[in-house]
Amino acid sequence: MSEEAGPTEEVDSGLDSDDIIMPSEEKMLFAERIFTRLNPPSIGAIPGMIHTKAKTVGGIFAGYAVFWWLTVLQVSDEPEYTSIFFGPEFLTITILAPCLIFLGSLLSDFSRELGQLFPGLVSGIMFVLAVLYTFEPAIMGLMDDRDMGDAIWKTARLAVLCSTVLLAAKLLIDAWLLVWVKEFMEKNPEIDYLGSNGESYPEEEVPSETEA
Fold first, then answer.
1. pLDDT at 66 over 90
2. Residues 6 or more apart from 116 whose CB is under 8 A from it?
3. pLDDT value at position 190?
4. Does residue 148 lie within any of the structural domains?
């Protein structure tokens, strides 16, 4: 009986080591880039970072909605304004410009993290259009006989809206990347994760069942 047990154990151990499926090199590099960029202090700190960033994004979007409602929708005597870039009105621009910033941020990070060319080109076009829409009122106020105060107020509101969305988009993208790498680590617990300084991230200590 003892002679049969030895070979069986060797076969089982060999199967266990061969059954480990390593993730693709592309996923490994992607996870490494996320660690280098966001630099979590430990693996156990990632859920807290996700929570903090998600809560901050929610607060920013809530403030954005209140600011837009008070300074755009509640203004009854808003002077008419039409952009020379494809002709949208000011109310439409207050929606269009932040959307361009948000989508441009998503495409920019997608291009940077995955090394894709086309999303980066599109994001550049979106950012340029958003900047043109934002500063066009002030520039037009300097060039023609429009009310300069109203022109600056329009540009100021657009700048606040776009800046707010840009910050929220960056935090949201970071949170999504942390969620991805958290799920990646849970599926591949056998991999050693290195920080930007080349040191392994500390594993969370699990109390032993024998300790009581």
1. yes
2. 110
3. 64
4. yes
